[in-house]
Structures are given as structure tokens and as C-alpha cells.
Amino acid sequence: WVWRGEVWLKRTMGGDGDGHPDGEPKRKEKLEGFAFWESIGRPKFVLAPMVDQSELAFRMMTRKHGVNLTYTPMLHSRLFVENPKKYKKENYESDPADKPCFVQFCGDDPETLLAAAKMAEKDFDAVDINLGCPQNIAKRGHYGAFLLEENDLLRRIVSTLHDGLSCPVTCKIRKVNSHNFQDTLNLAYDLQAAGCSVICLHGRTKEEKGHHTRIADWEAIKILKGRMDIPVIANGGVETYDDAIKCLEQTGVDAIMSAEGLLENPALFSGNTVSVDDLAAEYITFAEKYPPVQKGAVKSHLFRMLHPKLQVHTDLRAKLGKSHSFAEYKAVADEMRSRTMGPHHSQTGWYRRYRKNEPPRSGSRPTDHSSVPVSHAGASAAEQPQGRAEATEEEEGGEEEEGGDVSTVERESKRRCPDPNPCLAQRGEAWAAEG
Ligand SMILES: Cc1cc2nc3c(=O)[nH]c(=O)nc-3n(C[C@H](O)[C@H](O)[C@H](O)COP(=O)(O)O)c2cc1C
């Protein structure tokens, strides 16, 4: 047992756990809770797990700008176990330079989750269980936020991974419901008792997504932090660096996680203002160095970073939509830079697409909102002749929903089965992909 400021924590051995006959540990000592948190440098700023979007290139880029803990995109435990070679080739990226990093899995079967996690544990610092995905595909597949009320099952999942892995197990949850926060607390107590080392709470329910996204409940996160004996990460509603600091102060959590804010502004946690042109160019460089296994990731990132300007320069939006090579992406980014030097972040940014009337959480924002990007023709966004300012999903290469963490699977299914009456074999394949 070790004393870590707040609590006593048990040091355990991972896997079979036995020592060598000479008394030396057979495996690396497994730390838990705050002892583990300390061992990974007490991270403050966290890049959220995002299917298609927290790929290695983006993880490495955000690290350069202040992120000190990353998560992989969600991996599907059953699909991974069924065909590890194929699944890894299409979905799995790790690198010794990307440390600390948690690998995230979804699933509802303890043994399948353990089998999948065991194939990944050597490459990552912890294994995270996705208990937050609110999408229909998660409902159909019985995972993510649709397990939040199945405390017995979740206890079994966490304890199975806790006992079977040589690295810690962590959980990312949402608020269980909006009427009784005690349900969320009870779930968190259960997860902690079963061996969860770090808990991340997204301060919204599974119903609060997409156009129904509401302000994240930091008060709930604060209460959870006050009750837990393990590190707590806050997630939701961080748009700026000031928001992040405010959330840390208001909730007292150990770290702040951001998803959409970082997609729009990968330098969010640095507190520095970096132009969208520099960010886009830098991301392309990272993507060339660490080519994403999901090819669509590059385009999606560029659409999100360049969102305010693409609403003005609609010809470049169309051009980006048709681009497929790094040379083409660079050409769009260079052309954009040559046309305008707009702000990196504004009321027209991608983060605000569902939140146009929502006041900022903290008083200050990183840029001057009066400076609307000016097009090459000298017209402001409002004056543009093109009627439609928002890009379509097709142009952006993916769905727009929060927790768009199923887009790859669904797009993949559509690609395989473009015909509304696909042959049975294709249907089976699509069904398998959708879990
Ligand atoms: C494109 C996208 C993909 C996501 N994929 C995942 C995922 O794989 N696993 C997960 O737990 N959450 C996923 N999420 C949810 C985020 O991790 C995060 O919980 C949510 O966006 C709220 O944080 P935010 O307010 O900072 O955006 C995804 C979100 C987005 C926007």
C-alpha cells in the first residue's frame, strides 16, 4: 500500500501477478489511482477519444500545444478480437512518442473486452472503457452510454480488466440521467470499487447531443470530484483556454478533457493564439509524418480547423471536399492563407455550429469577433453571394453529430452496400461492422 496524499492505494501486480522465485517481480509493478496518475506526470490537459479524429497525427500535434494525456479513438472489442490483424491495420495506431496515452474500447462482454485489451496493453498506459457513446449504433450494439444503468455488468467488466491487465483500467462516463445525480454517483462508486483507476465524467446525459447539446454540468463534476478517491477528469463545454482554467478552478478536478474545442483549435490548451492557416499547415505536416490509418481523418480535421474561412471561401470548401492527396490539401491551405488572414477562432467557428446563441463560459475569448474573415473578393461572410454558408456533411466527409464516433463504421457500411438491397453476404458484413 502507498500513501498518495488523499488515499491509501494498493500496488498490485498485473496479469498472473506472481513474483519470481528470487522475490523479484515478474512484471512491472502496477500502480493504481493517484499513484498511477503521479507516475504519468499528473496530466492537466487531455485530448478526448474521438473516432476518426484522435488519430496519432492529431495526438502528436496537440501534444505540441499543451496536451499531456491523449486517448485513442474508440476501438470495438469484438471486432478487434474477431480479426485482430485486419482491425489493427484499419484502426490501430501507437507510437512510443505518444505517451501517456489511454487506449479506449467499447463492448459489453468482460472476457471479450479483456482479450482485446490484452492485445493492446503493451502499447498504452491504461485501458479505458467507453461508457459515453450516445449514438444509435451503440444502442444497437449494447455499449457506450447504453450500459450506464447496468451497474452489475459494469462492475464485472471493470474487475475483469483490473485483474487481468498489467496496466490500469479507466472509465469515461456521462451523467446517467438529468433528474437524479445520485445515480451517477452510485455508478462511479461501483466503478471505483471494482478497480477503476481514473474516471472521466462528461457533464451531459446521452440525450444531450447534436442539436440537443446543452451546457455541460460542471457542478455535477465538482460533486463527483469531492466524492472520489481516484483522479477525476472533467469533460464538456471547454471552448477556450480560459474555460479550461475556469473549469479546473470551479470543479477542482485533476484534469480537463476537450474534444470539439481541440478539433477547432488544436492549440487551445497552450493558451496561445495560433492562426488557422498555421494550424492547418502544421496538421498536414503531422499527418504526413504519421499517416492516419483512416484516410478521411485528414480532410475532416481541415474542415473543422478552417470552418470559419470555408464559410466565406465556398469555392475552396468545394475544392477541399474533392481533395484526396496531401498535395491537394496543401494547395487548398496555401490558397486560403494567401487570400485572408482572419482570426483563428470566432463565433463562426466549428465548435459554435450548434451554439450560436450560447454565451461563452468564461468572459474572454481569444480573438476579436468583430474581425470577420474577408474573402478574396473583399466581401464579408454576410455579403457573400453564395446562399448557403454551412458546409454539408458530404463536403465535410463525415457526420456532424457530437460523439460522431460511429461515422467510420456507418460510412464503411454505406461504402460496402451502396445498393439499398445488398446481397446477403454484404448485409452480413455491414451488420457485423455495426455490431
Ligand atoms: C468526432 C467525435 C468523435 C468522438 N468519438 C468518441 C469516442 O471514440 N469515444 C468517446 O468516449 N467519446 C467520443 N466522442 C465524445 C468526446 O470524447 C467528448 O466526450 C464529447 O465531445 C464532449 O466533449 P467536448 O464538449 O469537449 O466536445 C467523440 C466526439 C466527437 C466530436
TrEMBL record:
UniProt key word Flavoprotein: yes
EC number assigned by the record: 1.3.1.88
Annotated DUS-like FMN-binding domain residues: 47-313
The entry's keywords: Flavoprotein, FMN, NAD, NADP, Oxidoreductase, tRNA processing
EC class name: oxidoreductase
Reactions the enzyme catalyzes: 5,6-dihydrouridine(16) in tRNA + NADP(+) = uridine(16) in tRNA + NADPH + H(+); 5,6-dihydrouridine(17) in tRNA + NADP(+) = uridine(17) in tRNA + NADPH + H(+); 5,6-dihydrouridine(17) in tRNA + NAD(+) = uridine(17) in tRNA + NADH + H(+); 5,6-dihydrouridine(16) in tRNA + NAD(+) = uridine(16) in tRNA + NADH + H(+)
Composition bias, Basic and acidic residues: 408-418
PROSITE patterns in the cross-refs: UPF0034
Short name of any one Pfam family annotated for the protein: Dus
Acidic residues: bias regions: 392-404
rRNA-binding recorded as keyword: no
GO molecular function, one term: tRNA dihydrouridine synthase activity
Region spans: Disordered: 337-435
Signal sequence, start to end: none
Family of this protein: Belongs to the Dus family. Dus1 subfamily.
Protein name, UniProt field: tRNA-dihydrouridine(16/17) synthase [NAD(P)(+)]
